[in-house]
Fold this sequence. Notes:
This protein is mainly alpha-helical. About 80% of the residues lie in helices and about 0% in strands. The protein is flat, with a radius of gyration of 21 Å.
Amino acid sequence: MMSNSLLSSLEKLGACDPAMEWVGNRCPRKAWIECNKPDWLLWVLIYLDLTWEFRQALAAILEQQALPHAGTAKSEVAEVIRLLRCKNSSKDEFLLAARVAFAARVANAARAARVAADAARYAAYAAVDAVYYAGAADAAVDAVYYAGAADAARARAAADQCQTIREVVSWKVIEKAAQEKNLL
C-alpha cells in the first residue's frame, strides 16, 4: 500500500516503473518542478487531458531546439509549429505536416550521425592513447570525457525541454487538472 497520493495516482494512470521509483516520496509540485524527463512531463499533460497545453509545450520545444538545427527542413518544422499553435488545424493536417517534418528530419539525421561518429572516434583515439601511454593520465581522462560528452549533451537538452514545458504549462494548471480528475 502506498502512502504517497502522487504514487497512487501514477499507479492508477499506469506510469512506468522508473517514473514511480523516481517520484518516491516527492510531493506532486516538487516532482513537476524537479523532473528532467520531458517525455514524462508530456505524458502527464496527455493523461490530464491538457491537449492544448501539450500542443503549446511541444511547439515551444520544437521552436527552441529543433528549428535552429532543422537545416533543409526548416520550413517543414516551422509548419508543424504553426499547426500546433493553431486551434483550428485539423488532426489530419497536423499529422501530414508532422510526417513531412519527420521525413525532413530523417534526411538531416546523417549530419547528426557524423557528429556522433566523430565523438566516438575521438573517444576511441583517447582510449588508444591511454593504453599506448600506459602512465598517461591525461589520455585516460580524455577517454572518459569524450565517452560522457554525448550523455551530458542529451541530459542538458532534456533539462532544457523540461524547463520549456514548465514555462508553457504552470504548476497551477497541472494542479487544477489533477484535482478535477480526483488525482490529488
